[in-house]
Amino acid sequence: MEKDKNAQEMTLEQIFARLDEITASLEEASTGLEASFALYKEGSELLASANERIDLVRRQVQVLQMAGNGEEYTLSPFDESQAGTE
Questions:
Q1: Which of 22, 39, 55, 69 has a CA that sits 20 to 30 A from residue 84's CA?
Q2: How far apart are CA 75 and CA 79, in angstroms?
Q3: How many domains are there within the chain?
Q4: Predicted confidence band at 2 (pLDDT cuts at 50, 70, 90)?
Q5: Which residues pair with 62 in a beta bridge?
Q6: Can you give the pTM of this predicted structure?
Q7: What CA–CA distance (Å, rounded) separates 46 from 59?
Q8: What per-residue confidence (pLDDT) applies to 37?
Q9: What is the mean pLDDT of residues 32-42?
Q10: CA distance linking residue 19 with residue 60, whole number of Å
Q11: Is 77 inside a domain boundary?
């Protein structure tokens, strides 16, 4: 994986793969302190980008709501004000 790739240009799958690589590198005893700090910073930035994207998707989720007669379903936008109230 190209390490210099901007997080905005990466897919979520690529971000998670890179985070796995970073974690593995941080777990190696041979990784120096400066390299560890750089990896930690990169990982933090990637994680923030992933969280922003996941949050965006969450807001765009459509939920099924039962129509008045109980037999039909309709799609409606996710309503954040209703989250956690059920």
A1: 69
A2: 12
A3: 1
A4: very low
A5: 77
A6: 0.65
A7: 20
A8: 97
A9: 96
A10: 25
A11: yes
